[in-house]
Amino acid sequence: AAHWLHLPEDVKFQIDDALSQFEAGDFQEYCDDFYDLPREFNILGTCLFHKGYLLSSHLCRDDMVDVLLWCQFHQILPLIRAHPVHQLVNWTEVYPTRQSLNQSVAEDSEN
User: How far apart are CA 32 and CA 56, in angstroms?
Assistant: First the structure.
């Protein structure tokens, strides 16, 4: 389980709003050049960590577990707890466990 950092409601609202804008692809205020281009990816949800603490998550439980396992495997949370990291971006294609499980169940029911 992730360690949550409880925040004041106004701060939580601002974080949730920023994550929602990212998920919606609402980048027009940043750059008009990319606004009408088709997406090359889908965002299933987002989460935000600060110093190893979860500030906000828009992921379903199963996807959040996958993200936490990925962070633990790559030692991301201990890194950001121990060292001041100003920005860390890792763009990785992931295959959510729930999607794999649903596909397996569907294939089994067809047989």
Answer: 28
- The two structure tokens encoding residue 105: 């169940």
- Using one digit for the tens of pLDDT, what is the confidence trace for 12-36? 999 999 889 888 876 556 565 655 6
Q: How far apart are CA 54 and CA 5, in angstroms?
A: 6
User: CA-CA distance, 110 to 104, in Å (whole number)?
Assistant: 10
Question: What pLDDT was estimated at residue 26?
Answer: 63
Report how far residue 67's alpha carbon sits from residue 43's, in angstroms, rounded to the nearest whole number.
13
Q: Which residue is it, tokens 């936490």?
A: 68
Q: Is 49 helix (H, G, I), strand (E, B) or coil?
A: strand
Say whether pLDDT at 58 is over 90: yes
- Contact indicator for 31, 59 with CB cutoff of 8 Å: no
- The span from the CA of 20 to the CA of 15, in Å, is 9
43 — alpha (psi -120 to 50), left (phi > 0) or beta?
A: beta
